[in-house]
Amino acid sequence: MNYQSTRGNSPVVSAAEAIKLGIAPDGGLFVPTDKVTITYEELANLVPLSYGERATFILKHFLTDFTEEELSQCVDAAYGGQKFDTPDVAPVRSLTGDLSVLELWHGPTCAFKDMALQMLPQFLVRAIAKTGETSHIVILVATSGDTGKAALEGFANIPGTSIIVFFPQEGVSEVQKMQMVTQEGQNVHVVAVQGNFDDTQSGVKQVFGDVDFTGTLKEKGYRLSSANSINWGRLVPQIVYYFSAYADLVKSGTIDLGQAINFVVPTGNFGNILAGFYAREMGLPVKRLICASNANNVLTDFIKTGTYNRNREFFKTTSPSMDILISSNLERLLFELTGRQSDKINTWMTELKESGVYNVDQNTLNMVQSVFWSDFATDKETLATIKKVWVQHNYLVDTHTAVAINVLEKYRQTTGDTTHTVVASTASPFKFNSSVAGAIMGPEALAGKNEFQLLQDLSTFTGWPIPRGLRGLNRRPVLHHKVAGKNEIDQAVRNILL
Ligand SMILES: N[C@@H](CCOP(=O)(O)O)C(=O)O
């Protein structure tokens, strides 16, 4: 399996090279050159396996320049030991006969990003060796809260690498911020950006595209790479949990093998739901992928109309990880759905960059709508959903997961489709505890309390334990104080590296 750029102007590379580079030299995103198909029998064979065994099976189809032994070492290092607080890694909980929740937040940083970011450093270390790379790899990350901490946790003290995480100074939860600024490790840097996530991601992408700067870095012995979902090495481990959830539902007798299900995914940068799309393309029986947005509903509008327009107000919501107006991975989806027409992708991405808007043709829109459905939830609806799920099911969800559940209700009301649906639960409710506590305990419970006091209150009220990774967070020393203007991201990289 090789990898090509969505923009069509970069050489085809191996998986190891694609993972090492992170983003294609022409500014596009790497996608597999060939389609992978999983047969009915292979799907059946996944059912009795452990999460790690399922992962190794899926990964080997995409990372063909890695041996099966290497992949199973990567899997053990990522998901083995005590890193995840359950041996199931990503368990599925059934709430009703037609609704299950895929809990993706049992890793060290309490968000779904751990599913891939415990793995990516393992891939990268091996990719460096495979490609004979001699430069020190510098991982640049733009985060709206979850990727940053998960990447720091994954890459801390990984030999041959450094990591610089940029986060919007006022655009993440208190818990997310503390998780990042208290990160230990000799090779980690964290910078608060005076701007929103889109400013941060655009600034980081600009650094990747600055040929003079990357040339200077090369001379000094540095090569840039990415731990965002623009890196294929981030996406491929995420494909696994769609298969694993399906296998678990078959194993529990909730569905029959071959029966189609839906997934509803809270969506920001479009990486998670895109992994679901690739799983579907591989033959996983998925009827609909429901794309759930918050008030930053650029994707909802796009999926309904075919117009992507980022020229709109940017809202700070209670689901900050999804406060995004430029969803990077949509580029990969459009590449696949247009039959891999790089010229169209180049046109749309140039229009997006220059005017903030592009329109896809009717045929492409039809293709999008044949797989995806989308709507959004306001903050008020999100908090009401958290309360409703708690009261009806005695089950706690975070704000992002609540957005997904609210949008699923809208989907069912609109379409009448009662297909069994899996909600991708992307973060622990304790990560967004003031919103969650306010929703279920009432706003008066928040009075005079900071997020860290509320961790304990939420745990006492619900009987749910505070996740290991969040205990004592407020007592950890703040180790990172750097701040950059939204146009100073390249300068921040220079200051750190040169
Ligand atoms: N929601 C993300 C934003 C970056 O997305 P990624 O999937 O490309 O890393 C975050 O939490 O940082």
UniProtKB/TrEMBL annotation:
Record keywords: Zinc included? no
User: Which residues are in coiled coils?
Assistant: none
Q: Which pathway, metabolic or otherwise, does it act in?
A: Amino-acid biosynthesis; L-threonine biosynthesis; L-threonine from L-aspartate: step 5/5
Q: Which residues carry this modification: N6-(pyridoxal phosphate)lysine?
A: 113
One Pfam family name is: Thr_synth_N
GO BP annotations listed: threonine biosynthetic process
The UniProt entry, under CDD domains, shows: Thr-synth_2
Q: Which residues form the Threonine synthase N-terminal domain?
A: 2-79
> Any idea where the Tryptophan synthase beta chain-like PALP domain is?
105-412
GO MF annotations, alphabetized: pyridoxal phosphate binding; threonine synthase activity
- Does the entry feature the keyword S-adenosyl-L-methionine, yes or no? no
- Show the Gene3D superfamilies listed in the entry: 3.40.50.1100, Threonine synthase, N-terminal domain
EC number of the protein: 4.2.3.1
Keyword terms = Amino-acid biosynthesis, Lyase, Pyridoxal phosphate, Threonine biosynthesis
Q: Which reaction does it catalyse?
A: O-phospho-L-homoserine + H2O = L-threonine + phosphate
Q: Which cofactor does it need?
A: pyridoxal 5'-phosphate
Gene Ontology CC terms, in alphabetical order: cytoplasm
What NCBIfam families does this protein's entry cite?
A: thrC
Q: Which PANTHER family match?
A: THREONINE SYNTHASE-LIKE 1 (PTHR43515)
Q: What does this protein do?
A: Catalyzes the gamma-elimination of phosphate from L-phosphohomoserine and the beta-addition of water to produce L-threonine.
Q: Which family does it belong to?
A: Belongs to the threonine synthase family.
Q: From the Swiss-Prot or TrEMBL record, give the protein name.
A: Threonine synthase
> Which source organism?
Desulfotomaculum nigrificans (strain DSM 14880 / VKM B-2319 / CO-1-SRB)
